[in-house]
Structure formats: C-alpha cells, structure tokens
Amino acid sequence: MSGTEALTPAGQYTSARLHGGFVLTAGMTPKDADGLLARGRVGEEVTSREARHLAFRATERALQAADEAAGQASQRVAHVVALTVYLAAGEDFTAHSTVADGASEAVLAWKPASVLPARVAVGVASLPGGSPVEVQLVAAVTDR
C-alpha cells in the first residue's frame, strides 16, 4: 500500500491538514494493502508486544500523511510535536505507555536525531474497524 491508496480516509475527512506551520493528521490505524493488520483489544486478543508493533506501523502511516500534506504546500515535516495513541484496551490492561512506545520508536526510526514528541496514551473501549491501536500526530513544518 502506498501513496493515496494508503491514506484514503474511511469517511468524510482528510488524512492530514496543514495549518499555521503545523500539519495535523487524522487517526491512523495499522494497515497494509490487505487492510487492518490485526483486530481485537490489547491485553485480550492482542498482546502488548503485538500492539507496540502495530502502534509503530500506524505511526508510519501518520508520518506518511503528514509528509504528503506538507509536500503539497512545498514544505517538509521538520519534527513531530505531539502523538496521541489510542488503545482498544481490555478491562484489566494498564501498560498503555509500553504500547505507545512503539509510536515514539517510529518517530525515531523516521528521523533518528529527533527530539521525542509529547505523547498521550489513552485506553478506549473500541476503535474503527476493530483496530487495537490508532495514532494521531501533530508535526511542525518548514519550507523545503
């Protein structure tokens, strides 16, 4: 999955929006060309380790959306300012930060010298399509 196909919204919204020196992405789930990489709740059907990897993959998609939005305005993503990581968490699951570390790791893999962004990890009852994780980011942009 690449380009526009990878980032086609599931509803009436845009994958990313550039405004005032920042790009804000929609929530991104971990997908490939065949769809969601996993379904279920973290701590139940999906292990913490699997969810961490899924957070990494969802963040890669969010970074792609941010890059594409910035590029359309002849700008580039300078750095990620904030991450919000949503987890469809089982009732007794409490290792939200461990799973969200996968999102931070994706930012560092994308730009190794990055300063880590501020981050929120939120447990919720469900996510779109039954996804175990969803990641949204805010990034600062600069001229190319």
Question: Can you put this structure into words, describing what you see?
Answer:
- It is built from 3 helices and 7 strands, in the order αββββαβαββ.
- It has 144 residues and is α+β, with helices and mostly antiparallel strands.
- The chain has a single domain, classed as RutC-like (60s Ribosomal Protein L30, Chain: A, 2-Layer Sandwich).
- The strands form 2 sheets. It has a 5-stranded mixed sheet with strand order 1-2-7-5-6, covered by helices on one side. The protein has a two-stranded antiparallel ribbon with strand order 3-4.
- A hairpin with a 2-residue loop joins strand 3 and strand 4.
- Helix 2 packs across helix 3.
- The longest helix has 25 residues.
- The two termini are 26 Å apart.
